[in-house]
Amino acid sequence: MTSLAVLNLAYNNFSGEIPHSLGSLTNLKALYIRQNSFSGMLPSFSQCQQLQILDLGGNTLTGSVPAWIGTDLLNSRILSMRFNRLHGSIPSIICQLQFLQILDLLTNGLSGKIPHCFNNFTLLYQDNNSGKPMEFIVQGFYRKFPRRYLYIGDLLVQWKNQEAEYKNPLLYLKTIDLSSNELVGGVPEEIAEMRGLKSLNLSRNDLNGTVVERIGQMKMLESLDMSRNQLSGVIPQGLANLTFLSVLDLSNNHLSGRIPSSTQLQSFDRSSYSDNVQLCGPPLQECPGYAPPSPLIDYGSNNNP
User: Fold this and answer.
1) Is residue 39 situated within a structural domain?
2) How many CB atoms lie under 10 A from the CB of residue 296?
3) What is the mean pLDDT of residues 175-201?
4) Kind plus residue range of the DSSP H or E element containing 139
5) What's the domain count of the chain?
């Protein structure tokens, strides 16, 4: 089956290891095996250099995130390995995937630090509003005659705290989800350079340091979840500049100081900031001793003092 372009085995009850022979499908563009019971380590797909979508979520795969993804799958646009049993660190070599729009490593056992090179994801660096369609022209037969078909893919993803299946997600979604792992260290400042990113979820790790100071550059961000970490320091004023932000969760950290004043940040529920003992200001209780600034009065240049 050397001409096979799309293989969709999702939502079955397949078990055992993923056959190594799949790595010989050199024309494969999309592989969906999510929501099965595949186990063991991922075989090499180094020969599948046209592969754009690798959807492995919802299995019990073990081992680490393979380095060959970053060296050989340079056309990758979707990499979903969510809900598996992967361990080890996130290899910085995956930053070579310039066309990547969706990186989903939710709920594994990944450890180590977040690579500082995520700003190399070129499509996430660009702040244009849409991506390219996720469509493939595949060969088929109709009444024994060859025919070309348009295959439109889908993806299961968590978007704005809701898990749903999206048809043609690359038209809109630009997401990174590293939540529910064992990641440590600070949040790299380079993340703020991903101006096209729409959803960032780093929750339920062991990250420390501060919220990225330049986060206000991420103008397209609609959902930000950094809850249940060890983050400290103040909330950057730039967060108030994210006018598309509709989901925010900074709860269960060690943040302090006053929440910046803006229509945007005060519109979120108290739960977005809860369990930060030293954090204050609306929508939480007001900071002790806080007095609002006095309005400036312009008496005009023609008036006597």
Assistant:
1) yes
2) 5
3) 95
4) strand 135-142
5) 1
